[in-house]
């Protein structure tokens, strides 16, 4: 089994996509991306993660731990990937352009999100009502209205 790390042999193939793993354990962890299984739950909020390391990163937000600092401004982040994303704001390199308007971005995923403005796509659905949102952050803001309503009912 250990030798596979040296040979590159990956006999365990995902039946859902082209992912291959050298160990069955790694394939099982990967399968969570398809099943939606998130066994690691935050004790502070309703966040759940598919991987333990994601939960650990999430917990940093609750304690305000932000070890990654921008060298150009006062921005601080709890995750290195967030700092890398932020650093792109300090550059003019924006290869992803909207064909509908003059929006430009350094990240393909940001262009994909932006395109929802033009297409009207709203993939995020509220579990409490029929509200839909184009951005996850907008859905989270909307969900607070339900939390506030239920809190008011409890204290009446």
TrEMBL record:
GO annotation (BP), single: regulation of transcription by RNA polymerase II
Record Gene3D superfamilies: Classic Zinc Finger
InterPro entries tied to this protein: Ikaros_C2H2-ZF (IPR050589), Znf_C2H2_sf (IPR036236), Znf_C2H2_type (IPR013087)
Primary location class: nucleus
A molecular-function term among this protein's GO annotations: RNA polymerase II cis-regulatory region sequence-specific DNA binding
C2H2-type domain boundaries: 12-39, 40-67, 68-95, 96-123, 124-151
Record key words, sorted: DNA-binding, Metal-binding, Nucleus, Repeat, Transcription, Transcription regulation, Zinc, Zinc-finger
Subcellular localization(s) per the UniProt record: Nucleus
GO cellular component, one term: nucleus
Domain of life according to the entry: Eukaryota
Protein family (similarity comment): Belongs to the krueppel C2H2-type zinc-finger protein family.
Protein name: C2H2-type domain-containing protein
Source organism: Hirondellea gigas
Taxonomy of the source species: Eukaryota, Metazoa, Ecdysozoa, Arthropoda, Crustacea
């Amino acid at each position: 089994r250990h030798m596979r790390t040296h040979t590159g042999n990956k006999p365990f193939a995902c039946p859902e996509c082209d992912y291959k793993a050298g160990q069955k354990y790694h394939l099982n962890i990967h399968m969570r991306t398809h099943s939606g299984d998130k066994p690691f739950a935050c004790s502070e909020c309703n966040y759940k993660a598919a991987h333990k390391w994601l939960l650990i990163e999430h917990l940093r937000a609750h304690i305000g731990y932000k070890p990654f600092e921008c060298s150009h401004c006062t921005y601080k982040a709890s995750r290195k990937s967030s700092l890398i994303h932020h650093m792109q704001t300090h550059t003019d390199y924006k290869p992803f352009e909207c064909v509908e308007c003059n929006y430009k971005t350094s990240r393909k995923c940001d262009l994909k999100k932006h395109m929802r403005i033009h297409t009207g796509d709203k993939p995020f659905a509220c579990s409490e009502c029929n509200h839909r949102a184009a951005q996850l952050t907008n859905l989270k803001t909307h969900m607070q209205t339900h939390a506030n309503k239920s809190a008011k009912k409890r204290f009446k």
